[in-house]
Specification:
142 residues; alpha+beta; Nucleoside Triphosphate Pyrophosphohydrolase; seven-stranded mixed β-sheet; 7 strands; 35% strand
């Protein structure tokens, strides 16, 4: 196998999962990180892409691994985020996806210590650049 003499960035996929209550209010699904960096902080479900999967497959796999959810809604690509220092583990580019789905029970699994729905008007501080990702998602759904 040929390897390049220069470093390459890692690629991740993050899922902004929006659920709607019966009264129309929206909530977002977050996971509490079980490991560093940002251990115990809230973030979107997501993670590193495997060599044999697409970004969409990565997003759905990570969502299922971390929350147990298999969404019924469409997976919509929002935007790529590539700020140089967005991940303290190294050069990482993420592609964020939006999923609108009915509110369903979620449970923290794999490297997620907890999974929980939060009202959009009452969110905890978010890890990485996930606040910026959320702003893009909210612009898309309005």
């Amino acid at each position: 196998m040929y390897t390049y003499p220069y470093p390459r960035p890692a690629v991740t996929a993050d899922c902004v999962v929006i659920g709607q209550e019966a009264d129309g209010r929206r909530q977002v699904l977050l996971i509490r990180r079980g490991h560093e960096p940002y251990k115990d902080c809230w973030a979107f479900p997501g993670g590193f892409m495997e060599m044999d999967e697409t970004l969409e497959q990565c997003a759905l796999r990570e969502l299922k691994e971390e929350t147990g959810l298999t969404p019924t809604g469409d997976l919509i690509e929002l935007k790529s985020f590539s700020t140089v220092d967005r991940d303290p583990r190294g050069r990482t580019i993420t592609v964020a996806f939006l999923i609108e789905t009915p509110l369903t029970e979620a449970k923290g699994q794999d490297d997620a210590a907890e999974a929980r729905w939060f009202p959009l008007d009452d969110l905890p501080p978010l890890a990485f650049d996930h606040q910026e990702i959320l702003k893009v998602a909210l612009t898309r759904i309005q």
